[in-house]
């Protein structure tokens, strides 16, 4: 059973990890697809808008003479780099304003926080291939800088002045030709929040699915563990049930030998009591109920309980002290179960002397059973009254029994609305104190 449980545990764990890996991979791929969709939407919209501005000669001004004049003046060193850059910036104020309005519109409509940048990466004088600029010129950039740029587009065009040749009116001369290369970059700053917002429902479904599988897994394991414990308890009961009957059987054997040797009038009542004890044990195993009719206990019955124990365990010193002088309205058979279960439990755990005291005060029956046995650890005291529980050392039960004795003691005391207290010290012994209320 243990081997099968370990195998099932391994299978469940492997399947769960596989399912978790599939879900993570699926979520990652879905995230990438959504991210690409958003970037494609931003890219297409941004390029389309910039192209419209180009057509209006407001951004790149492909055929504008003012751009040509600025480049020529800078090429001829008539203006410095600072003035050259200022000319570019001043000539494109309207284009920047429109582009900013477009980005604000996308933020309001779609929630996209877009950072954009348009720059001339090179300007080359074609006749002599001279580079006019040694580093890119930014002609537009949003207030929030582009940190992780996505390239929206690369473009290049030529700008030049034309002049008709006087000798041949049909021939057009191109002068001061420049090759300009531009690049448009952009970044969606809130791309992660946008993607996760779109994937919220999918993420919740995946978490719910994994949680359901995990709960099913835990529930299955708990059932397996519970069933395994039940099987172990059943095996333990089957293996030890004969031992539980040894006490009355041994007493009957002693009584039988006594009858064979010599007639003793006390022997027959002893046999009757042990037969009743066997019947009581059988009823305890088959049903977990208290008797409907109670037989009141008399003072001499307590002595009979101890005599039976002394006859069964001749090597144990049973000390009995009674302060009862009248019948009490508690069931005789149940009190026999309480006394004998407590005393036999002491014997099982190494006691050589067991002391029992019974008394009454203020309509309460007081019972105290103490021994000099092995004692118990403090952590065991809360468990000893559980059904089928037996104290074990190194995961081994060293004492025979069903684990029902103290359970029935607790059940009987609870049925009478009484209380039971236990004190124990390892190597010294244990003491059980019982108080049962009764009415006249």
TrEMBL record:
Where is each Histidine kinase domain found?
240-440
Q: Which SMART domains match?
A: HATPase_c (SM00387), HisKA (SM00388)
For this chain, one GO molecular function annotation is: phosphorelay sensor kinase activity
- InterPro entries xrefs: HATPase_C_sf, HATPase_dom, His_kinase_dom, HisK_dim/P_dom, HisK_dim/P_sf, Sig_transdc_His_kin-like_C
Range of residues in the leader sequence: none
Q: Which UniProt keywords apply?
A: Kinase, Membrane, Phosphoprotein, Transferase, Transmembrane, Transmembrane helix
Question: Which reaction(s) does its UniProt entry say it catalyses?
Answer: ATP + protein L-histidine = ADP + protein N-phospho-L-histidine
E.C. number, please?
2.7.13.3
* Top EC class for this record: transferase
Q: Which PROSITE patterns match?
A: HIS_KIN
Asked if Ligase is a keyword of the record, the answer is no
Q: Which residues cross the membrane?
A: 6-28, 199-219
Q: Show the PANTHER family listed in the entry.
A: HYBRID SIGNAL TRANSDUCTION HISTIDINE KINASE C, TWO-COMPONENT HISTIDINE KINASE
Recorded protein name is histidine kinase
């Amino acid at each position: 059973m243990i081997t099968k449980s370990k195998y099932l545990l391994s299978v469940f764990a492997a399947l769960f990890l596989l399912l978790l890996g599939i879900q993570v991979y699926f979520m990652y791929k879905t995230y990438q697809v959504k991210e690409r969709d958003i970037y494609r939407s931003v890219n297409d919209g941004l390029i389309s808008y910039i192209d419209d501005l180009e057509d209006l000669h407001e951004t790149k001004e492909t055929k504008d003479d003012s751009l040509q004049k600025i480049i020529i003046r800078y090429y001829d060193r008539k203006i410095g780099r600072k003035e050259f850059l200022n000319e570019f910036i001043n000539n494109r104020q309207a284009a920047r304003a429109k582009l900013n309005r477009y980005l604000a519109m996308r933020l309001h409509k779609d929630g996209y926080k877009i950072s954009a940048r348009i720059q001339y990466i090179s300007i080359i004088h074609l006749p002599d291939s001279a580079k006019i600029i040694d580093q890119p010129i930014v002609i537009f950039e949003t207030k929030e800088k582009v940190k992780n740029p996505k390239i929206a587009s690369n473009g290049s065009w030529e700008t030049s002045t034309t002049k008709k040749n006087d000798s041949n009116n049909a021939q057009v001369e191109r002068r001061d030709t420049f090759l300009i290369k531009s690049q448009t970059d952009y970044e969606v700053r809130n791309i992660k929040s946008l993607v996760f917002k779109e994937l919220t429902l999918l993420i919740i479904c995946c978490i719910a699915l994994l949680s359901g599988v995990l709960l099913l897994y835990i529930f299955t394991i708990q059932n397996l563990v519970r069933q395994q414990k039940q099987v172990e308890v059943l095996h333990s009961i089957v293996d030890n049930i004969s031992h539980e009957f040894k006490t009355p059987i041994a007493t009957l054997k002693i009584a039988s030998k006594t009858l064979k040797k010599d007639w003793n009038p006390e022997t027959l009542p002893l046999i009757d009591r042990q037969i009743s004890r066997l019947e009581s044990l059988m009823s305890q195993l088959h049903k977990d109920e208290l008797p409907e009719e109670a037989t009141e206990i008399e003072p001499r019955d307590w002595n009979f309980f101890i005599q039976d124990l002394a006859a069964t365990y001749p090597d144990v010193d049973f000390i009995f002290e009674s302060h009862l002088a009248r019948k009490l309205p508690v069931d005789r058979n149940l009190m026999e179960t309480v006394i004998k279960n407590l005393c036999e439990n002491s014997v099982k755990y190494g006691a050589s002397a067991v002391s029992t005291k019974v008394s009454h005060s203020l309509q309460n029956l007081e019972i105290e059973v103490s021994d000099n046995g092995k004692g118990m650890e403090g952590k065991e005291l809360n468990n000893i009254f559980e059904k089928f529980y037996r104290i074990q050392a190194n995961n081994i039960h060293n004492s025979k029994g069903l684990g029902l004795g103290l359970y029935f003691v607790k059940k009987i005391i609870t049925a009478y609305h009484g209380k039971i207290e236990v004190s124990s010290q390892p190597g010294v012994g244990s003491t059980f104190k019982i108080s049962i209320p009764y009415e006249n």
